[in-house]
Amino acid sequence: MQIVRSIAELKNILNPRKREGRTVGFVPTMGFLHEGHMELVEEARKDHDIVVMSIFVNPAQFGPGEDYDAYPRDEQHDAELASTAGVDYLFIPSVDEMYPRKSGISILPGEQASRLCGASRPGHFDGVLKVLLKLFSIVDPDESYFGMKDAQQLAIIETFVQDFNLRTSIARVPTVREEDGLAKSSRNVRLLEHERNEASAINRALSQGKRSYYEGVPLQEVAKIVRKAIEEETSGTIDYVDVLAYPSLEENIDDTDEVILAAAVQFTHARLIDNIIMSTIKDEKNV
Q: Which pTM value belongs to this model?
């Protein structure tokens, strides 16, 4: 595996290989890698000749008072994991490399970003799309891999790629979980000991909500069931529990095949998100 830190160098490496007909799978990350990221690499490795992973803690997607400086970083450990997983090129640019000058151009993600995490993090998804457009332009991947844990982000990225006719296609990869059901996240290490013991209750509550839905409980009541379970089993503060059409993220679910049941919970030093995608077509296999 080769570590690359400059945009020009990465382009000089990849462009000749693309001209030879070799395909590129891309895994963009903010580092502090875990098994969820490795699953993305594994999927990219299956499908493409070359796997590129980026590690860049993007300041553009952190709002005032958020945890940019505190976001966990461990480049050496990340490089070891990426190499073992089969990454060919690990792109680790500096902030100055990615943002060499102040830009007045913004990317506004629209209504999809006004709900769920976007409601309490204004500007967050603007920054996500800004850095992804740069990364997609630099790497020019055939396919880019994202986990379903960040389902709102994934829906917005899919819309962005489709609406602007970007060349890359987007691959969805299921959420990777701990044995107790907690979604793997770089922020999990910031949970206090008692909070880590509580955090698996988020997935249990969502699973309870899914069962209730397929047993005939109206979706509005499902959200209340999930909220009550999280409140009773954790000391965290609920940011939201919501049900929306997926991937449109519209409140009207009458004409959708899937809905997302999603929750965000703020603990002392970490905000955790999780979700379950449910089919609106109820049959025995869904229960």
A: 0.92
pLDDT for 55-101, tens place per residue?
999 999 998 878 788 888 999 999 999 999 999 999 999 999 999 99
CB-based burial label for 277 (10 Å; 0-12, 13-18, 19+): middle
What pLDDT, on the 0 to 100 scale, is given for residue 284? 46
Domains of the chain, by residue range, sit at 2-173, 186-277
Q: Is 131 left (phi over 0), alpha (psi -120 to 50) or beta?
A: alpha
Residue 122 CB coordination number (10 Å): 11
- Among residues 6, 270, 37, the alpha carbon closest in space to that of 149 is found at 37
Q: Are 209 and 222 in contact (CB under 8 A)?
A: yes
Residue 254 DSSP one-character state: T
Phi first, then psi: what are they for 149, rounded to 5°?
-60, -45
Residues belonging to the binding site for beta-alanine are 61
For 2-173, give the CATH class. Answer: alpha beta
37 tagged catalytic: yes
**Residues ≥6 apart with Cβ < 8 Å to 285:** none
> Which positions make up the binding site for ATP?
30-37, 147-150, 176, 184-187
Cα angle 18, 95, 152; round to 5:
75
Topology agreement, domain 2-173 and domain 186-277: no
pLDDT above 70 covers a percentage of the chain that reads 98
Residue 10, both tokens: 């990465």
Q: Outline where 140-200 has alpha helix (H).
A: 151-163, 193-199
186-277 classified as CATH 3.30.1300.10 = yes
Which candidate in 37, 77, 194, 269 is catalytic?
37
* Tens digits of residue pLDDT in 114-168: 999 999 888 999 999 999 999 999 999 999 999 999 999 999 999 999 999 999 9
Known binding-site residue numbers for (R)-pantoate: 61, 153
